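Shift notes (night). Ran Aspartate-semialdehyde dehydrogenase while the centrifuge was going.
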Amino acid sequence: MKKVGIVGWRGMVGSVLMERMITENDFKRFTPLFFTTSQAGQQAPDVGIKTPPLVDAYDIDQLLDMDIILSCQGGSYTEEIRPKLAAKNWDGYWIDAASTLRMDDKSIIVLDPVNRKVIDNALSDGIKNYIGGNCTVSLMLMALGGLFENNLIEWLTSMTYQAASGAGAKNMEELVAQMQTIGNMASPVLENPASAILDLDKNVIETMRSNDFPVQNWAVPLAASLIPWIDRAMDNGQTREEWKGFVETNKIIGRSDNPIPIDGQCVRIGSMRCHSQAFTIKLKKNVPLNEIQAMLAENNDWVKVVPNSKEDSIKDLTPAAVTGTLTVPVGRIRKMNLGDDYLTAFSVGDQLLWGAAEPLRRILNIIL
Ligand SMILES: NC(=O)C1=CN([C@@H]2O[C@H](COP(=O)(O)OP(=O)(O)OC[C@H]3O[C@@H](n4cnc5c(N)ncnc54)[C@H](OP(=O)(O)O)[C@@H]3O)[C@@H](O)[C@H]2O)C=CC1
Ligand SMILES: N[C@@H](CC(=O)OP(=O)(O)O)C(=O)O
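Came back to this:
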């Protein structure tokens, strides 16, 4: 059996990955060795089979012994370790959640329900680096795969509503702490049946603007607000998250040389771990709505077309409904007032599943 080194298994993405791998009995297919940057010698996680104690993730000799290394440890680990393995002519497969190597010529961004052909070609060409895509990009492609597959998109915009989990575990905790602070401070007003709504409103905004409000991680309130900026600035006014929407999407579908224009605004909202996106899509031609819905539904096993009704949209097309599932609902599908070749749609997806862990789990199985 192949030896697979797993690094970053107890982080947020890594934990979701472990859950999925246990559920799918993946650990029966290879010999795992668990690495750590901080807990060498301690017990490895219980994955249903006997495994040795945790190994130091900076021990190059131990890493060199692996056939495959799967890292959810983060970009700085990748930057430090991947070149050291290459310098020693390590010939194994490197699977990674971090963005560091995504745009590298010698790497493939993996999302096999969408780009299995690209992956298969890369495997036969001897490519060794297989990297999970940006969560927003992967979730968009899972939702709109049918339109990309049928080459119907002239350009598109994606306006995002991104969850706290994309910024990490501490930020998720702080979002809930912000909610708790708002709730605690407002409870005397809420519990007084005679209080006026403007008293509640004033109470909440005063809490959010107070110096005691917990903002160490977000820098500003997110609960009862939003943050219209994700990641760092690029030179052209985009954020890096917005930039990834264009470059990563086109790389995944193998169109970097003839890219589809994609742009939009990425916004952080107070959802826990589901990213949502509202699309404006310029179609190459006028295609009837029922054909579009059929193409979307047929593209992969996880996309689910939601009828454009209030009842269905509020039931099935929300983070509350989707969190913890692999389903990627896409709804609010209709032609726009702009013209018959302008389509709008809205999708939701768990950014730790199809947005992060699931493509890695699947590429591991493909390589195995
Ligand atoms: N968060 C996301 O939405 C997405 C993240 N990614 C990428 O995945 C990579 C990992 O991200 P993420 O999972 O958020 O990183 P985390 O910060 O959750 O985990 C990274 C590492 O931190 C160490 N760590 C230290 N303290 C703790 C603790 N209390 N609990 C758990 N782990 C701890 C662990 O390493 P050790 O055991 O060695 O100490 C762990 O492997 C990054 O490159 C990120 O860009 C990709 C897609 C989405
Ligand atoms: N930037 C994403 C999360 C993430 O980790 O993205 P990437 O894998 O591209 O660095 C977000 O904040 O929602």
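DSSP finds twelve helices and 14 strands in the chain. The radius of gyration is 22 Å.
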